[in-house]
């Protein structure tokens, strides 16, 4: 096989239920000049057998195997080392690509100065499918990067140079994508294509509560490193408040909510970009959602904040915040989940 324009790296671990569909969605793309590198990370099910069967019929599929489960970071770096393409894309063994995903991303990278791009995506598998529309411009992604990862990992395609300079790090497993994107954003240009190019499967095997707790610990470290990388100075108290904005738990202290408002206003005033300002202001909504147990105090602080006008809050979200404050619902409670009609990743 001649040197491909594109290498797609797909780690696989015990994905026998979905791996054939994921592979098929790559090999039937409108862009055909590619290699698909599947790194099996010690699967104990029939994944390898199924992958080999497909490889026997399509030379573009290369299977690499590990003798034991070494983890996704090792599998990803192994696949990247073996990649030969000018562009390198990511894919997961349980997701499905839209037929034109790869051709659209190649065209985007060839026609712009962007170095790494993801895309919007459709979540499916649990509940009603929904399209997730994350920030897409470079300035918006840069502003969002200090709060959370807003690039869906299996939608990513990048110029080879990005992965030559930055690799996934074992110390940040569970948030290895956020870590790499935060570091890469200091040297390269990142964007999301504002169109859903992937169907992202949700299923119970993805994360236990223990893994979510471990991921939050790692994510807190990355947020603070992202602040530092962008030259944003923060006191120890501001660092604590910064992580509290995205913490997966309720805010019970009025002083904390007022402190978060002051910190976000500081970031807002220091950012000269219109899109960046909107992203920063939108974090105020997330914080207020978590502060619903404060009841009327949350509603008063939220309503009087100058951040409210800049956050692009629609009437439904405004109404739902009022309901949450009236009911004083804990973030993540069953009652909260049943009322969570708005599509905020808070």
Q: Output mean pLDDT.
A: 93
CATH architecture of the largest domain: Alpha-Beta Complex
Distance between the termini: 46 Å
SSE pattern, N- to C-terminal: EHEHEHEEHEEHEHHEHHHHHHH
By CATH's scheme, which homologous superfamily of the largest domain applies? Spore Coat Polysaccharide Biosynthesis Protein SpsA, Chain A
Provide the domain count.
Answer: 2
Radius of gyration: 21 Å
Contiguous helical run count: 14
Low-confidence stretches: 341-346
Largest sheet: 9 strands, mixed
**How many DSSP-defined strands?**
9
* Fraction in helix: 40-55%
Shape field: globular
Which strand-content bin applies to the residues? 15-25%
CATH class of the largest domain: Alpha Beta
Structural class: alpha/beta
CATH topology label of the largest domain: Spore Coat Polysaccharide Biosynthesis Protein SpsA, Chain A
GO molecular function: hexosyltransferase activity
Keywords: Transferase
Domain Glycosyltransferase 2-like: 7-165
Pfam families: Glycos_transf_2
